[in-house]
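Box 3.1 — From sequence to structure: Small ribosomal subunit protein bS6
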Amino acid sequence: MTNYEILMILDPSLDETAVQDKIGIMKKWIEDLGGSLNLSEDKGIDRLAYEIKKAMQGRFVYILFSLDPLKIDSLRHELRLDEKVWRYNIKKNLQVKV
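Predicted structure (token representation):
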């Protein structure tokens, strides 16, 4: 298992409950692929550097997880299909921050 971190920009119109539901869905996807979610943080709404879908703000969510590198493309596919996930960046985490 490799440690990864993902930073997602979500639709800012989502309330706290909807964001926690999104994190729960992410956890389910990761566990279905044989991984584990180590940490999740809702960073809140912040200003964007450029406009996305006619909005200048987005809700940022940080997730730290472990997953088999061969299955990371399946997770990316699920993220691309989710309309509320505007942008995301997945990278290897060399330091585990648990």
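Summary of the box: The radius of gyration is 13 Å.
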